[in-house]
Amino acid sequence: MNGSFGWWKPPGAMDLDISVAESLAAGNAGRHLDKRKSVVLPPSRLVDFVHNLLATPSRDTLKQLYDFVALYGRKQHSSQLLFFSASMPTLSLRLLDLLADHIVQLQSSHEGTASGSSSTSATKTGDSKSLKEAMELFYVFCKDTPIGYPSHAVGKLLQSQVGCIISSAMNGGSEDESMLKLQLLLVAVTLKINAGVRIYVKEMQRVKEFYRALTILLNSTEDAEFLVHSMTILARLVLSESLGAKLFSSKNVEQAFELVFTVLEGTWQDGNAASTSTSPVLVQPLHLQIACVDLLCDLAEQQSIVSRLEQHAKVVPVTESFLLAIHLNGNFEQIRVAMHYLSSIVALGPQFRKLVIRLMIEQDVFHRIMQVTLYPSKTIGILCARMLLRIISDDQRAMKNVFEPASKTQQLSPVIAGILRCINDASSVVQNTESFEQLCASETYQHSVEVCQVLAKMCEFSTVRALCVQTISLNQVKVVCYQKFLAIELTDAHLYLQTASLIQVESGQLGSVDPQSLLRFYPRLSINLVMLLANLMKEKSMNDKTKRTLNQFLQSSEVSLILGSAFFNRTDKEMVVNTLLLMQHFLSESNNKRFNALGLAEGIVNFGQRLTEATETLQSEISSLEANGDSQSKVIEKLQAEIQQALKLHQEAKNRHDQELKELKHKFLDQTRQKEEMLLKTREMYEAKIRELSTQCESMGQIMNKKLSTLQHREQLLQENRMKQSLLEDENNELKRKVQVLELRLEEVAQSHSVVAEEMKIRERELNQFREEMVALSTEYTSQQEDLQNAQNQVKKLQAELDDKESASENTYKELVLLAKAHKTIADERDELLQELENIREEVSSLESANLSIQSKLQERKEYSDQLERKLGRMEDAVSVNQNALDDEREKRRAACRDLDELRKAHRKLEGEIAMFEIRAAETRLMVESKDDHIRKCEEEVRQLSNEIAKHSKLQALIHQLSSGADANSIAGAYARDS
């Protein structure tokens, strides 16, 4: 087997190693065999995608990164995503800033598309999908990244997300619930481990509206995601404040516990299954259950809530179910949630740790959980190892019963063999890795580090330690440990066999690597192996020869160098404590303490010297950076002078522009006032003429009404006279008939009797009387004919008067024609005024183009200042590595930062002045538009006057028709229709 240790095979076990002779034969076989069996680690594709996105930010590169993250989200076996933020925090922060800017831009364009009606549904759907993908990527890379105080981009993102949440809650919900859930999730994840973000959110102007919106969401929905994310945000912001005491009362806390445990059990029913996200990145219900566990931990920051949680009825059954869910054949998502829950609840207090250990003993599941460290997905193995380290802790009394009786310990034998096999596989990875970055990105190496640490921790218990001694073939330690020296003697110093010791390989790398790399890398696997071997030496059943051999190996210079690197660790305090305890144990068990102390001191001093070299190199780089900073400060001073000059020129141009605007404004006001005066005069003239015409028309109408009434009266009299004449004619005819009858009778009487003669004379006298009456009637008839002739003469006089009125109406029509000509001149003047307004608009557009040119120049200055900011950012990253030893240099850098802040303030002031200039230009445009509206109103009034003139012309036509003898009733109806 190609590795540093040979594994002793127990009876019936597999052959897990090859002999020493075979190892030496492999070493003599030459370089060809080494190349054929070497394992070369591929570079991290995730880092490549991130660098590609930062170098060329576009939708295509963002889509490539999203597809890669989604692919590993479906495969669920990569630790690249899990440990990316922890291993590369600077790169992760740069990526978050880029994603934050992209999300803000997409969100603004999405809101504009949603408010406009011209965009198609396909465009809206594409923008919404791109926005969701960017937000999901931000969540993936933000959840484990220590942001601290948010940058400008992240701050803008938080403000936009808070504003969207407020508007959605106040408007009764969002059309896209998945978008609102993502917004809540983003705000919650940025608040998780970042106190600076919490301070930033609390200092927002709309923070009270934000709290109100979250409470509205809590009271208006039954959706588990809305409830969990809203309560998480409130718990992380106001739990320790007076508002938190009101929101998280005893009743509300109990409801929150009920919600969390119901979701963890998978029995929550909210009726919104159709709205569940199907994203390949945010796997449901994995991230919701993890969010519930985080909410539980956030609430448990209050001691009173911890006591309620400890007494809750569902803590024991849920913990027991999660312990049973962790096994080799378990589901990836269930195992992930279970380990997150157990790791979190153990950290809440010793009472919960004792509860977990008690349930492990009752259910006898520790060996099954240990098997999960060898899960096919190394990500699960790493997480399981970390969970076990939290559970085991330093308190051995609670864990002692887990390994008793001995039958339980024997169940761990296959797991220990598998862990040792993983460590052996990692040796080839260490030997063939070209850089520490690739080694840290290797899943095999990370997995071996974690499981080796778990095994070293378990070997503090005597039963497990005895089992490890039985499993590991310590008789081959001496040969394996010195194979490298044999190989060097047989070949040359550059030939490394695959069977070389892992500890010696990493110690050799520590001695040959660039000193600055020692500030970023620690041989964690070798350190844990040394801890493991040191714990194995405590076993009494180990024979003396093996113990002496192992003790001799642990006293070698390679091991002392490894312990020196652990002693100088600046990130893991637990590792330093274990190293000190290990050194104390070495010296206490040693007979020659000074000799052993000298060996340990040699390794510590060697590593310290390497660190000193790295520090000196870093100091020289810092001095060069300071020199560059001085030169950059001079450039900044020049830039400040140029900006001051540009500001001065801009102020002069602004003053000139303001003066020109004032002159144009005065001219425009004068012209407008003149036009208004002309319009008022014209309007008054038209109104006076219209009043005169209306009075004339009214008087003429009254006269015509009087004449019509007199004519009607005379016609009635004429009709009466005609009726009387017809009656008289009838009476005359009757009298003539009677005369004829009388004449006949008189003839008869004259013939018949002479006596009748006297009566005839009487009749003649009567006849004469009748004739006299007829003559009187004829005289009356002639007098009536004279009256009729007089009436006809009066009608002729009226006709003459109507002719006079017609001539007067013709004169009035001529005056109306003159008024139309005057209206035409006014329209021509209005066209001239519109032309002048168009010229003014062209002048305003030229001023706007000049403003745009000034803004482009300022943008170039801003880009140059951004370049300087990025250079200063790189300087800050280099200086922050050795921050504790370089306080004086940091003060100088802070001074440069203050100068840069002053420059930024001046730049912001310049931007504010430009914004004021744009506002004034907009006000000028508004004034021009108001004048256009006033002119349109004047045109509307002119049109109304024209309509009035048309009505009066129609009235004159009606008068003309009346004078020509038309029917009065038809004329009155036509006048009514026109009016």
UniProtKB/TrEMBL annotation:
Transmembrane segments: none annotated. Residues 174-265 form the CIP2A N-terminal domain. It comes from the Eukaryota. The keyword Coiled coil applies. It holds the Pfam family CIP2A_N. Keywords: Coiled coil. Residues 608-667, 714-955 form a coiled coil. InterPro entries: CIP2A, CIP2A_N. This is CIP2A N-terminal domain-containing protein. It comes from Lagenidium giganteum.
